[in-house]
Specification:
Layout: H1 2-6, H2 13-20, E1 24-33, E2 39-48, E3 56-62, H3 68-84, E4 90-96, H4 105-121, E5 130-134, H5 140-153, H6 180-192, H7 196-201, E6 212-216, H8 220-231, E7 235-241, E8 244-247, H9 254-264, E9 274-276, E10 289-292, E11 311-313, H10 322-330, E12 334-336, H11 338-341, H12 344-358, H13 367-385, H14 391-398, H15 403-429, H16 433-451
Parallel strand pairs: 3-4, 3-5, 6-7, 6-10, 10-11, 11-12
Antiparallel strand pairs: 1-2, 2-4, 7-8, 8-9
Helix pairs in contact: 3-16, 4-5, 6-8, 6-12, 6-15, 12-15, 13-14, 15-16
The chain binds nicotinamide-adenine-dinucleotide.
Length: 456
């Protein structure tokens, strides 16, 4: 993708090489004393792909198959992702080579704390240096351990809370972070459907209202994307999980499906829906928007020719292989690329970092003021017109924005602005949205070097 995008730019080869390479990689091995007293050597990495902006930012994954190449590649994707959504960070990624299910909670805590210590010792963590976040196999709990370890080892008291994001809200996290990626997916798709010109090319009406949506993966991202798209008027016609899929032309009630799965252990057998025993068949369902939100490599050159969706919203990382991408573009399918569409998480992580550095909850300084202003405006209208409004309507209309409102609004603004930029680049270069997203990212990183006159 990088090479394809480069061919649309006129940056010197040396500059493109500098943008592509991983700036720093820290490989560490340290001992873990297991609960049974045995010693095990743990392997771990932290990659800082691009120092064109500080800090660098990216998750830490705990996975058995993690390796140096993967961490470096994922760190580079973070650089491009941040650039695309105008988050002023370079890209980073960390990995610890373990299967978290094979370790007790106290072993996981010892691994996490030792990893943080190693990062700190080599200056690979800090609010202005490198800020990790959750990724595969990690959660807000691991982020709280990282913060506590960092706190106990530095005298950076004023800004230490910003050394990691994705923390629990009571430990300096921000409201709305958990659902941010799925919400961002929905905002991105809504914006893509806003262009009557683009929708006409696909044979669709403008807007998401009434569009049939199929979602693969009812996890964090898939669930929230489906939830917010349904709120915007889309009809959820298909859901796929690993045990199978369900379909209903009339639409599925998302919460009822979640409840049904909790009660029965499966989405199959949902009242009023048709069961599809082979989960992957759901990708081939007749629909307007297909949202793969489970795993990478789901749409390949084998099933791509049979896809009937007009729009694919890549909520998961890498759900469409390169072969399939070419086939789908040839078929006229609009692919909204992962590198843009699932950037909601890092966007809200940026808001968390800002909150930590400012030491003020979003909305604290303005909520009450806004409410009083709105009440005064409503009173003036009521006095001038003589209309009466019920008290609950007055309180709804006058409410000042709280942290969640502001985070969601900032996320929506970010996703809309970034989409408009990518669409412009796609038109200018007569290319697809994915290539356009990479061109846009490369150009933004190149500005840093060009402005210094390094590559005149
Ligand atoms: P998750 O584990 O919460 O959800 C994944 C869901 O997919 C699970 O419910 C799982 O049962 C289901 N699934 C697994 N295999 C399946 C299959 N073959 N068919 C259908 N469903 C299947 O994970 P998540 O956090 O929602 O992440 C989903 C994807 O989004 C991943 O690719 C992840 O890398 C990407 N992503 C997540 C975030 C985030 O903030 N969580 C951010 C960016 C990208």
């Amino acid at each position: 993708m990088f090479a394809k995008a480069c061919s649309h730019t006129d940056h010197p080869d040396g500059l493109l090489k500098q943008i592509k390479i991983c700036n720093s990689m820290y490989y560490m091995q340290f001992p873990l004393k297991r609960d049974d007293g045995s010693i095990e050597v743990i392997q771990a990495w932290r990659a800082e792909h691009s120092h064109h902006k500080h800090p660098v930012k990216g998750g830490i994954r705990y996975a058995e198959n993690v390796n140096e190449d993967e961490v470096a590649a994922l760190a580079s994707l973070m650089t491009y992702k941040c650039a695309i959504v105008n988050v002023p960070f370079g890209g980073g990624k960390g990995g610890i080579k373990i299967n978290r299910n094979n370790y007790s909670d106290s072993e996981l805590e010892r691994i996490t704390r030792r990893y943080t210590y190693e990062l700190l010792k080599k200056n690979f963590i800090g609010p202005g240096v490198d800020v990790p976040a959750p990724d595969y196999g990690t959660s807000s709990r691991e982020m709280a351990w990282i913060l506590d370890t960092y706190n106990s080892m530095t005298d950076d008291i004023l800004s230490s809370e910003a050394c990691v994001t994705g923390k629990p809200v009571r430990q300096g996290g921000v409201r709305g972070r958990n659902e941010a990626t799925g919400r961002g997916v929905a905002y991105g798709i809504v914006e893509a459907c806003c262009s009557a010109e683009d929708m006409k090319k696909l044979g669709l009406e403008r807007g998401v209202d009434g569009k049939r949506v199929v979602v693969q993966g009812l996890g964090n991202v898939g669930y929230h994307a489906a939830l917010y798209l349904a709120e915007e008027g889309a009809t959820l016609t298909g859901i796929a999980e690993y045990e199978g899929a369900i379909y209903s032309e009339k639409g599925l009630d998302l919460q009822a499906v979640v409840d049904h799965r909790r009660n029965t252990g499966s989405i199959l057998g949902f009242p009023g829906a048709t069961d599809i025993p082979r989960s992957s068949d759901a990708l081939l369902l007749e629909c307007d928007i297909l949202i793969p939100a489970a795993l990478e490599g789901q749409i390949t050159r084998d099933n791509a020719p049979h896809i009937k969706a007009k729009i694919i919203g890549e909520a998961a990382n890498g759900p469409v292989t390169a072969d399939a991408d070419a086939i789908l573009l040839e078929m006229g399918v609009m692919i909204i690329p992962d590198v843009y569409l699932n950037a909601g998480g890092v966007t809200v992580s940026y808001f968390e970092w800002l909150k930590n550095l400012s030491h003020v909850r979003f909305g604290r300084m303005s909520k009450r003021f806004e409410q009083s202003s709105n009440e005064r405006i409503i009173k003036a209208i009521v006095d001038a017109t003589g209309i009466t409004l019920p008290p609950e309507q007055i309180s709804m209309l006058s409410r000042g924005a709280d942290e969640l409102d502001l985070v969601n609004s900032g996320l929506e603004e970010t996703m809309i602005t970034a989409y408009k930029e990518i669409r412009e680049v796609a038109k200018e270069h007569n290319t697809d949205l994915r290539t356009a997203a990479f061109i846009n990212a490369i150009d933004k990183v190149a500005v840093y070097y060009n402005d210094m006159g390094i590559f005149p």
